[in-house]
Amino acid sequence: MMKALQSLVATVLIVLTSAISVNAQEQSQCGPVTNGWVINYAFECFNDSVFMTVDSSKLDQFGWYYTDDGLDDEIGDAFNIHGMAFRETDDEIWLVISTDLSLLAGSYDPDALGGRVGYGDIFINLSGLDFLGASNSSALYALHFDPFNDSPLGDTLGLYSAVNAVAKGGANRGFDRRVDYELAVANRGGTVDYGDFPPSMTYFPYDLPNSAFALIDTGTYLGPVSFVSTAELAAAGYDTSRFGGVYTVALRFDKSLIIDRCGVVGGDGTSCLDCAGVPCGDAVVDECGVCGGDGTSCGGCVETDYTAVVETLTTRIKEQRRFYRRLLRKYGKGNCKPKKANKSYRSMVSSLETIPLQVTTCSENPFCTDQNINSETVNILSGSSDTLYTQSRCIIKNWSKRALKSGSCNGPGCKKRVKSRRRLKKKLLTRALEIHETVMELVNQVPLVESQCEE
Ligand SMILES: [Ca+2]
Ligand SMILES: [Ca+2]
Ligand SMILES: [Ca+2]
Fold first, then answer.
1. What is the pLDDT of residues 377-392, one digit of tens each?
2. Where are the alpha helices (DSSP H) in 359-448?
3. How many angstroms does the Cα of residue 172 sit away from the middle of ligand 2?
4. Cα 245 to middle of ligand 2, angstroms
């Protein structure tokens, strides 16, 4: 009873393990894992903003994705965003904003909240919800990188999760609603632009009160964000001529703070490892429990190399043919059939090419079944060698019949000659048989069975 129970437990465990590994493989996604992330950014005053949807298929060779923002969509010269760039590497996310506003100074304005109008925070949304939905359900991530802006986070710069966003545009002498910003742009004859998003977008609120979100209200600190120098940007393949902003703000953070290399949010990067520990590798454990094995290491599987057999067989078949042709040349065809002999030789040569050089056989492996192989080839080889042998005998016998027939044999010279011809006949017949037998011995070494094992 106990034994049966143990084996049942073992079976269940095996089933569970394989179910888990199948799931992990379905989820796993190697290479870029940020496809579809929506990233947006606005100044505190919401005088310009930009929206990006990361399209992994458009990452360039350095992992960069660029979104241009219109150059006639700002309110106030300094508040112009030129564009945003995103970079995904194996373990980092980089974000670049090109604008005309100094990050350190912001824009001095005694009437603005905090005496200054600064940068907003950068929001990242991978929830699939629209901005307000994500904010209301604390599903947003955000980067707080301007220590002097009006986010309650102050100088605690970094990457945050579970973020709720807040709009303080009006208090910063700008806009509390997107519709008000658009009207202001239209009034001065400009053209609204939101980067990857059309002005008709429903992703971001349009005319709800206090919905021109640009700042983190509350959030959970995840980890640090670092500033990237111009030299580092250039070294990372960033296209420095893409945007014409006066200032470039470049940030980087550890990708695993949000998502692991397998594409699992909050994952530890192990769900897509194959049995050899390679992320998204294709090695699997075979029936014998060997990672990356071909299932032949258990159950008495043996791989045999038949190269030498095939090579020797080739040599012997050529020898059999050479012997036949020498007979033909020397003694004539008589009533024998040289065409038949030639055809046999040709079919032997071509059938040799079909013999597999490596053959695996497994004696006790339940995952393997025996398959018949080479049966046609062996038939051709033995039949053809037999034909060459028969045709050789035919020539020898034809010749000896003629050579030994002569009734008028006089003198010691003649008897001697007859005797030596008889000896020659016997020798030739023996040789023909010998060669045929050698070929047949090798043909019998050609494998007739190989094992097919389930992967
Ligand atoms: Ca814009
Ligand atoms: Ca702009
Ligand atoms: Ca301010």
1. 999 999 999 999 999 9
2. 375-405, 411-443
3. 18
4. 9
